[in-house]
Amino acid sequence: MESRIKQVTARVIHQIWTDRQPNKAVLAALRNSRNMMNKNASVVWPLMLSNLTEEELSHNGQPTYAENAIFAALRCFAIYQQANDHLTYEPDGENQQGQQLFKVLSTLRADESIKKALDRRVQTILGNGNSSSVIYAIYHLVSILKANVGSELIDFAQLAQDLYYFQLSADSSRQVCLKWGQQYYWNSKKTTEK
């Protein structure tokens, strides 16, 4: 499942955004559902669940790591996409303009008026091992980002992959937190100036 969650999330985002038009009902349902078990989330299920393999689906009514991660990333996408006429998702990588979420958040650190509050929120995430708490905190960070930037392209599919790994074990959650911390705190301008 090296990048499977990322691929599924990207596919669903492109199904939500077809022919340069968003599926507004799905985006609204995502924004109004805190998790997959919310009754509003059932609007999203046909798109999401049809793209998963049988092993990735819940067989007992409790969402799997894959379902939780993809739903959370899609909700972040819906929050950030609201009121934008252009697609705000693009993969991070060579010849792509999208960036990973914590890299985009690092650009907000330049604003001294929100730096301390933002740093506290990020630090809470980086020091937390509870996936539900981390996901809810990320929702708030995306809202802050939306209010202050709103135009950067974000790799929400990579966020889903990260959230999937975060849930696997204590070691993998620490690895994901280290990755996020590096993206958030490391400043490429410092290296360029030196």
From TrEMBL:
Q: What InterPro entries does this protein map onto?
A: CRISPR-assoc_prot_Cse2, Cse2_sf
In its UniProt entry, the species of origin is given as Limosilactobacillus fastidiosus
Q: Name one Pfam family in it.
A: CRISPR_Cse2
UniProt superkingdom: Bacteria
Give the taxonomic lineage as stored in the record.
Answer: Bacteria, Bacillati, Bacillota, Bacilli, Lactobacillales
Membrane-spanning intervals of the chain: none
Q: What is the protein named?
A: Type I-E CRISPR-associated protein Cse2/CasB
